[in-house]
Amino acid sequence: MDVSRRIAMNDFLHRPHSPTDARTKKALIGIVDANESSRDFIRILASSAGYRWAAFESIDAFLNSGFRDGVDCLVLDLDIPGSEDQGCERQLAQIDLTIPIIFLTGRANVLTTIALKDGAEAILVKPFTDEDLLGAIRASLDFPGLP
Hints:
alpha/beta, 38% helix, Rossmann fold, 6 helices, 5 strands, single chain
């Protein structure tokens, strides 16, 4: 099955669910990435591992959604527009999100080290493998019975 067909199927089968059922059987993974193909990759990967997901193109879209308090883990691309100098990490810290956050970045530097110090669950430097991301998601979920 070609990738575009798989993406269309996943979009149909795994539309974001209500935040009220986020902790029932499967964890709800929040995905924030400005790049649509990157969001699609993470959505397909999350779906293939049995996770539900809600994807957003910006941190503002995530924060203004009904999913802000319903996700069990957030996968956040640090390279999104407006995230220079840890802007999105600081924005998240100011609103006191208590969910685990996995940062993705194409630039490993001092800022990524600071992000880890400030409470990031993990930082994955691009390119990373499917197993790297799934392992980080699994490690960040501390709920018994979740995948």
